[in-house]
Amino acid sequence: MQTPTDPRHLRRREAVKALFAETFTVQPNPSELVQKIITQKAKIDKLIQDAATQWPIDKLNKIDLAVLRLAVYELENDDTPPKVIIDEAVELAKEFGSESSSSFINGVLGTIYKDEPEKNG
What we know:
- Helices cover 69% and strands 0% of the residues.
- The protein is mostly helical.
- The longest helix has 16 residues, at 7-22.
- The two termini are 23 Å apart.
- The relative contact order is 0.15.
């Protein structure tokens, strides 16, 4: 796990905050990372919806959705090992989410990771 002062962790924290705010209103001057996530939001949300079929996107806890969007974007577009991305997402969920957020996010991301064989090997 990365330390709380790790620049990558801090960048992810800021991205989650911006994505959370973005669920309520368009944010001025989002970071490059947040802009990239927003442009792929439909694709990312489809992956989340397919992995969490019992939870429609509009019913998900907004902070959980922000963490999931960041993590799914990284799984799809980043060279970071998937287990690191998932671990970071779980840590962000523990920091910002509810008591059940970390296990929910771990399950959704585990399903998405497992369902992408071309990326897993």
